[in-house]
Amino acid sequence: MLDRGRGSVNTSAERNEPSTNREYYRDELNFAEFPLASVSTSLPKGQKTLEFTDEIFDKARNERVTRKLTITASDKYGLPTAMDDEVILGLIQLTGKAEFSERKVHFTRYELLKLLDWTDDTRNYNRLEQSLNRWLGVTLYYDKSWWSKEEQSWVNEGFHILDHVQILDRERQRRGAKKGENTGKSSFVWNEVVFNSFQSGYLKQIDFEFYKGLESAVSKRMYRFLDKRFYHRQRLEFDLRPFACEHIGLSKNYHNGELKRVLSPAIAELETQGFLKKLGAEERFVRRAKGEWTAVFVREGKQATRSIESDSELVKALTERGVSRGSARMLVAGTEEGKIREKIALFDWLSDRKDARVQKSPAGFLYRSITEDFALPDDYRAATARKPTKKVQQLVPLQSQTPDAKSNAIAVSDRPAIDGFWNALSEDEQRRIETELVATAAPFLRDQYLEGQEERGLLFQTVRQAMIEGYVRKCLNAPSKAA
After folding, report:
1. Which of 307, 294, 234 is nearest to 259 (CA)?
2. Which of 77, 153, 283, 430 could make an SS bond with 279 (beta carbons 3.0 to 4.6 A apart)?
3. Class of 208-305 per CATH?
């Protein structure tokens, strides 16, 4: 997740920008077919090339052809990562606002940051500029892998995606804003090959809000590829290795078990969000022969997308404190409500006191405090022992509490007892109990725990915490809310 700080650095000239209408959301189909970037946030030092290869039957040639995409990078800026891939998709949306009429597109940095749901802080402005410079230095070599709508066949092409980028500093923005509509704006110029593909209509609709709401880079990449392929049919089957390594971009050093393990959380996210139909493990990954597996995907009827206006009170509370909308939705969907309210109250208490624990990265602290379930510090417990904090009262007005909300408020008051009980155990005893809880858990919970144990992501933390809380509540003779 990007660091969403609160410091605003945009100029007044950049603020008054219209939002991009959903009807303009598009994806270029060649860019959806093969990855343009690594799905990792970082790459091995010195790596300057990515290669993706597959084999298909080309109807135009009436034969099987091997398609290959090679991506090379400049020495200074390196290869693109998942964040850079998002930037290119954002540039496509800016171009769509102008109906793909000109190769040169004028924009403001604030406009692009707003479109991407990145906050306008200094760090993200720098990241955006670095990303645009990186794309200038990236060269793509398509070997029978760039679809030419005009020729109706896979062709060879080599090009930079962007031919030119101009980022105006504040002084040039102020001077230019007085002269005309576009003179105070930054700009980028698409490569002619890419722009010709736009104008030929080799585009598809994409739910960009849904895309941005996905938490995992693997989920986002999988969504773009599968959404393109679902155009022809509702059920898709792929050889596991070509799908995972050549179209999603996972490491080719992974063995089949690792590929399935890394894909599973992303698949679970797309299932939860209503894009993919839920399938059992034996239906999702089918063994054909020794070392050969098929990955199966079935499109769900309707995506569970929501606008921020219909989001819950908790999603709004988190986004108001700097957490991205997608991350906020994931937290609310996968975390006990009482825990989120507890950590929001802690965050507000620390922020009001300008505590050093939240000053460096406020949104990052809040996010981690929920996913890692930070223990409440002693000074906070002492200050709030007698009565709820003002912020908690604002978040949970007594007169509007539903029975569920009241239950979750009770869960907040249980937190010190739960934490105290668990923390009083030795590490050996905690490990022993956790092992037993996993062994006796429901199959679904056990599978999610074991699959996520190495990466220890949000889903793993949620499942682990639910099992531990259920155990402790039983020991304390409290009503269990765990699954």
Report:
1. 294
2. 283
3. mainly alpha
Query: How far is CA 145 from each of CA 88, 89, 156, 285, 406, rounded to the nearest angstrom?
Result: 19, 20, 7, 27, 57
The DSSP bridge partners found for residue 125 are: none
**Helix pair 403-423, 337-352: axis angle to 10 deg:** 70
Report field, pTM of the whole predicted structure over 0.70: no
CA distances from 265 to 45, 223, 261, 275 (A): 27, 13, 8, 14
Judged against a pLDDT cut of 60, whether residue 4 lies above it is answered with no
Q: Exposed (0-12), middle (13-18) or buried (19+): which is 122, by Cβ within 10 Å? A: exposed
Angle, alpha carbons 100-12-211 (nearest 5°): 45
The predicted-structure confidence for 395-445, as pLDDT tens digits, reads as follows: 333 333 444 443 443 344 466 777 778 877 887 788 888 888 887 877 767
Q: Cα–Cα distance between 115 and 25 in angstroms, integer?
A: 11
Asked whether the predicted pLDDT for residue 391 surpasses 50, the reply is: no
Domain boundaries, the chain: 1-9+21-206, 208-305, 324-475
Under DSSP, is residue 295 helix (H, G, I), strand (E, B) or coil? strand
In the chain, % of residues over pLDDT 70: 78
In the predicted model, is pLDDT for residue 334 greater than 70? no
Per-residue pLDDT tens over the stretch 94-149: 999 888 899 999 999 999 999 999 988 888 999 999 999 999 999 999 999 999 98
Tokens of 344: 């929001």
